[in-house]
Design a protein that fits this description.
This protein has eight helices and six strands; from the N terminus they run H-E-H-H-E-H-E-E-H-E-H-E-H-H. The chain is of the alpha+beta class. It has a single domain, classed as NADH Oxidase (3-Layer(aba) Sandwich), CATH 3.40.109. Strands 1-2-6-5 form a four-stranded antiparallel beta sheet, with helices on both faces.
């Protein structure tokens, strides 16, 4: 009987878990049965690129810089990153007006607006479908006993670096098998005073376009 050590099992389990997360996202409910969400998983090399890019955004988006620093710490223990995205244009023909245009045809003909976080304008239902898919993946990770968190910063960095291509809007689901949950102790990477200062600056007034999405 072959003996497999714990570290090997954990690493193999992480790979299998990401596959099951992708399966859950793939099978999640989508409007009008259109399964257009693109899903990829990435390795350490790509995560290092994302961490460096996020950290470089310190002047524009301190929150992205914090998440880049956080990703460096995550990679010291078993972790994985699932990234999913979709096109901004509508193929639903609902003509609901939620995007700000009267019809899907008008939305699809509109000039593309590029920003730090995504390309717009985008169909509301494409965004909802993407949220459903990411929540399904995160739920699967939770059921598998993994530490998990959904990140927008790591996703839009992957988009900017063309790690994920042919999408306009994306989201990421990060999972970890670290010795403790690494995702919600923000003050480990910032002092409380610095966090309070940044939070007050970035969130209540939205005076920087949320997280630096649009430059002044």
């Amino acid at each position: 009987m072959a003996i497999v050590e714990m570290d090997a099992m954990v690493n193999a389990g992480m790979n299998r878990a990401v596959e099951l997360m992708a399966l859950a996202a793939h099978n999640s409910f989508r409007f009008n049965d259109r399964n257009t969400v693109k899903i990829i998983s990435i390795g350490k090399e790509e995560m290092e690129q994302i961490a460096e890019y996020c950290f470089s955004l310190g002047d524009m988006s301190p929150l992205a810089a914090r998440d880049g620093r956080h990703l460096v710490q995550l990679m010291k223990e078993p972790c994985a990153l699932l990234i999913m995205g979709d096109k901004r244009r509508s193929d639903f023909n609902y003509n609901c007006g939620a995007c700000g245009f009267r019809t899907c045809k008008e939305l699809n003909a509109a000039e593309k607006m590029e920003s730090l976080t995504a390309n717009g304008p985008s169909c509301l239902f494409k965004n909802i479908n993407l949220g459903i898919a990411s929540n399904a993946a995160a739920s699967a990770a939770h059921r598998l006993g993994l530490h998990c968190r959904v990140f927008s910063t790591l996703a839009f960095s992957a988009l900017a670096l063309e790690i994920i291509t042919d999408v306009d809007v994306c989201i990421s689901v990060s999972v970890s098998a670290a010795s403790k949950n690494p995702y919600f102790d923000r003050h480990e990477y910032w002092t409380k005073e610095h966090w309070d200062e940044i939070f007050a600056k970035e969130f209540p007034t939205y005076n920087r376009g949320f997280i630096g999405a649009v430059e002044d």
